[in-house]
């Protein structure tokens, strides 16, 4: 960053990075891209955070960890932005054009524009080597988190594979390697753009939106705060800021961005991109495969839930697992009343459950 800031015309690139363009701020695609970038940067909706958190102790200070990771991520992004745009400002000065004319999005920025700028700097080979070592380490670090999410899920779902973890990892990595081969073919760049736009863009917004809605609106903010309090003590009660952000600001912002982005949807296939019409069809299939998982597994949970009617099954499925309850209660809508004060009562002797009043019917009352 210091070397880039010392280059001629670097200030113009830094100004382009820092000074906001209010016209672009009115474009929903800007906010959509920003939300997707935050999802990528913090690994939200990828499962990586859930996987990594599963290795922590129950009383680990997850609040402090979240603050530290968020702050460091922001500082890293700002530092990287200053370093990159100072070099892009230098490149724009060398070509005698505006900074906006040398800024490219996607892989072109990292593999075309930036290397071209490095080639015009003093000791270009050194900076090029350092730059691509940085890209390599970033890529490896990202893949470790994503791959570990898949590996952990497979090993948790099939515990017998834990004893053969090296073989399991080899098979999963091999499958991913074979899946990635089409991306290095002649049309791999176009295929990457399709995956990036549909599977890695709109799909992430869908999953992230449903996650926050399900946790805060269906599971409930009160239960969530109770869980945090059980883990962190008084620190887990959270301030009004966090409660407002979780219950209102975050879900409504994501819903708005997702809704408006879909309304203003523009196909990738056009004369400028050169992609055929069926490219968007492939993208929508990828998007559908991601989104359809939500209703499919919701139906599976409802079908497996206890209850005699569909309504009872739905109500049962909306209640948290007994292991997540922070207070003893005999009013859980399940037959296995593990917190019952009567240790001699068997599951078969559990009283009828009144789903309308969310309580068990007392002896002598009509159900």
Describe the model:
By secondary structure, this protein is mainly alpha-helical. The chain has helices at 2-5, 10-18, 22-25, 28-42, 48-53, 62-95, 107-119, 124-157, 165-180, 188-232, 240-263, 278-291, 293-304, 310-318; strands at residues 353-354, 359-360. The protein contains 14 helices and 2 strands.
Detail the poorly predicted runs: 326-351, 355-360
Spell the H/E element sequence.
Answer: HHHHHHHHHHHHHHEE
How many strands? 2
The count of helical stretches stands at 14
Beta-strand fraction estimate: under 5%
Q: What form results from the Cα inertia axes?
A: globular
* Average pLDDT for all residues: 79
Euclidean distance between termini CA atoms = 72 Å
Structural class: mainly alpha
Bin the helical content. Answer: 55-70%
Question: How is the main sheet built?
Answer: 2 strands, antiparallel
How are the strands ordered across the major sheet?
1-2
Radius of gyration, in Å, reads 26 Å
List the helices and strands and how they pair.
Layout: H1 2-5, H2 10-18, H3 22-25, H4 28-42, H5 48-53, H6 62-95, H7 107-119, H8 124-157, H9 165-180, H10 188-232, H11 240-263, H12 278-291, H13 293-304, H14 310-318, E1 353-354, E2 359-360
Antiparallel strand pairs: 1-2
Helix pairs in contact: 2-6, 4-10, 4-11, 6-7, 8-9, 10-11, 10-12, 13-14
